[in-house]
Design goal:
The protein is an all-alpha fold. It is built from 5 helices and no strands. Helix 3 packs across helix 4. It is globular, with a radius of gyration of 16 Å.
Length: about 110
Amino acid sequence: MTQTASGSAIFSERAWDEVARNLGLSRRELEILRNMFDGLTESAIATNLGTSLRTVHTHMERLHRKLHVTHRVALVLRVMVEFLQLAGAPGSGVPPICARRTAGRCPLQRKRSV
């Protein structure tokens, strides 16, 4: 069985901590979000965290209310937007997803026309 990189690895530990702090997330809410980024279902998250499906569902409902979103995709996008704001803030210390961003060499980064 081949191990693939997890989706939550897109952010550094520091980035996850800063996103959680800025969004006011509890430790458990952050664990659930990271599992979501790894593509796990609520049932798989419950198994992974050793908790009940109902508990995970309750945390998911709280995350939706706390972040003012109505579905899972919007929740992921809200976290991404928070990360991008942190990574783009001068002196934030949160590294960008692409470490070559500051050199203008990220694959998706476009040159700004003057």
